[in-house]
Amino acid sequence: MIPAQFDYVRPGSLAEACAELAADEDAKVLAGGQSLLPLLRLRLAYPSKLVDVGRLPELSGVHDRGDHVYIGAMTTHDEVIRSAVVTEGCPLLALATATVADPAVRHRGTLGGSLAHADPAGDLPAVVLALDGVLVAGSEEGEREIPAAEFFVDYLETALRPGEVLAGVKIPKLGPGWGFHYEKFHRTAQAWAIVGVAAAVRRADGAIAEARIGLTNMGATPLRAAAAESALRGAELGDQVRQACEMADEGTSPPADLHAQPDYRRHLARVLTRRAVLAAAGSP
Amino acid sequence: MPRITVTVDGITYEEDVEPRLLLVHLLRDRLGKTGTPVGCDTSNCGACTVMLDGRSVKSCSVLAVQADGCDVVTIEGLGAGGSMHPMQRAFHEEHALQCGYCTPGMVMAAIDLLRDDPDPSEEAIRHGLEGNLCRCTGYCNIVRAVRRGAQEMGQAVKTS
Q1: Is the pTM of this model over 0.80?
Q2: For chain B, which domains are there?
Q3: b/e code B78-103 from CB counts within 10 Å (16+ = b)
Q4: So what's the pLDDT on residue B80?
Q5: CB contact under 8 A, B61 and A40
Q6: Between chains, do B46 and A107 touch, taking CB under 8 Å as contact?
């Protein structure tokens, strides 16, 4: 379908973009448009104005900042996958991004757009949550940092305020000894995850010293599998890991849709967490 | 109404466009580039794939205003001097189409895939074309055609 009418502006700076958004509460940010344009075409959204931030140079690029990697919000999925800084500094993000949609969509879609859209079925929110990322919001007042754990508020809803634009993401680097895996379950190529599990695992002495697990599509927001994470602390590879991963769905409220009922998603979360943890621990 | 400048298949156009105009509709309805079809209209099928500044995109998921200042190549811009591009010829020779609706997008996606991997394996082709759906021939001949097209393009590079 053809989208409903809207105005369009392409501001020359982040400050201008924020001013446009602050002046019109029905205006919406346009990044790569790979989630927004389908919504407009299906007439599920009726913004008065699109504020196109896709070309703002200050919002693009990957930067190695010592203890963390800073990724500009308008960095495309394709650029994320190809970045040596990402594959070395936060490989989990590269692994998960490579599973997003298909190559053509990854050429346009952006990390920041995907996070600000906050679809719990998107792959990247759970990854940034698992890695304790920090989201940097720009506004006319300056920059504000929001931990990922506080950023995803509800279904398609974030802690961004009116007049704020997601400028970038800080991903803390994990030291040596960590392994990573993103386990995505879907029935057809390029489909959304029915459930996805992002796992970062540190091994020591044949056991798991620390695990961080982000869950995709197990509630209205991306979630951490907190109970499984604590049970995994000190768990030996084998039965102890299996038992700990049985707690992966604790505290979740997975949706029901055409693809799966909640109880099936809970089952998937447990199985996929076990697979993701073992793969991240180098013991598939 | 915003005015955009866009180069399509080597010709530069200046167009006044409504912000909601999709790139695929600009190509087809305004510029007559009907070689690029509209398939699913929901970003799934990839039939409308074109190159935007050298990278494959689904032109139903790009606004015409987003293509301002950009270089677009459609299926119609691939051949030169009335002859087919090696990838088009490979699709023809391997019978990689039946109704042909998905073919323009398949060819564009295949050429994009070869940027990174000039001699892709069958698995790499199947993975690389995951954003393009064919609903009649199936994929066996398409994969074969991409292999052949890749080899002929590699050959062309070597001999030129």
Answers
A1: yes
A2: 3-77 (3.10.20.30), 86-159 (1.10.150.120)
A3: beeeeeebbbbbbbeebebbeeebbb
A4: 86
A5: no
A6: no
Fold of A60-170: 3.30.465
Flag if A107 and B57 touch (Cβ within 8 Å): yes
Q: Which helix (H) or strand (E) holds B155?
A: helix B140-159
Interface with A, mutate which of B1, B4, B18, B20 (most A CBs under 10 A): B20
Query: What is the block-wise mean pLDDT of chain A (284 residues), using blocks of 10 residues?
Result: 95 96 96 96 95 96 97 98 97 98 97 98 98 97 97 98 96 94 93 96 94 98 98 95 98 96 98 98 80
Q: Does B125 touch chain A (CB under 8 A)?
A: no
Multiple choice CATH, A179-280, 3.30.950.10, 3.10.450.50, 3.30.70.360, 3.30.390.50: 3.30.390.50
Residue B26: left if φ>0, alpha if ψ -120 to 50, beta else—which one? alpha
What is the ipTM score, two decimals? 0.95
A41–B60 C-beta distance less than 8 A: yes
- Going from N- to C-terminal start, the domains of chain A cover 7-52, 60-170, 179-280
